[in-house]
Design goal:
The chain has helices spanning about 40-50, 105-125, 130-135, 140-150, 150-155; strands spanning about 25-30, 35-40, 60, 65-70, 75-80, 85-95, 160-165. By secondary structure, the chain is an alpha+beta fold. Strands 3, 4, 5, 6 and 7 form a 5-stranded mixed sheet that branches.
Length: about 170
């Protein structure tokens, strides 16, 4: 696939078998009933990580295999300044491969890639990360929620991702 990562392939054309129990090949983004974009397999994995649904997974970084042993902790919130914020704390174990990366280096990669995914979601008017569910809790009733006009507000808000990674 042009523009995708080395591991992003079409179904049936994977160059290897996966050591992971589940491997993401990509996903479609929806705004209501309308498809508004797509994510690659790597981006889908990051989205699942930010949603707190990929707590135990295997991942490749420069041909080295890492696996999460301890469940990943994810906290999504809307900061007082209106920024959509995600904090990821995880521990990785180096399983195979020559290159070993420092936790700070892996955290920086996750932060950059996760911000890109959140910006793509926002551009596609897709709130798959669930910030709307957080925002609705701050509305006292339905008229207050409707007056907030969340779809327009969502497209204007900034994004911030922080990650803490320890490599065992």
């Amino acid at each position: 696939l042009s523009g995708g990562a080395d591991m992003d392939r079409l179904p049936g054309h994977l160059p290897r078998t996966s050591p992971a129990e589940n491997e993401y090949l990509g996903s479609a983004l929806f705004s209501g009933a309308r498809m508004t974009g797509t994510l690659t397999g790597e981006e889908t994995g990051l989205l699942c990580l930010m949603m707190g649904q990929a707590q135990r997974r295997a991942t490749f970084i420069d041909n080295s295999l890492y696996r999460t042993n301890i469940p990943t902790r994810v906290r999504r919130r809307i900061d007082p300044d209106g920024t959509l914020s995600v904090h990821i704390a995880m521990s990785l174990e180096h399983i195979a491969g020559e290159a070993r990366h420092a936790g700070e280096e892996i955290a920086a990669r996750i932060e950059r890639a996760a911000v890109d995914v959140l910006l793509r979601l926002r551009a596609a008017s897709c709130d798959a990360a669930g910030f709307g569910r957080i925002a609705i809790r701050k509305s006292i009733d339905i008229p207050a929620w409707e007056a907030r006009n969340w779809p327009d507000e969502y497209e204007r808000l900034g994004v911030r991702v922080s990650a803490e990674v320890s490599v065992l």
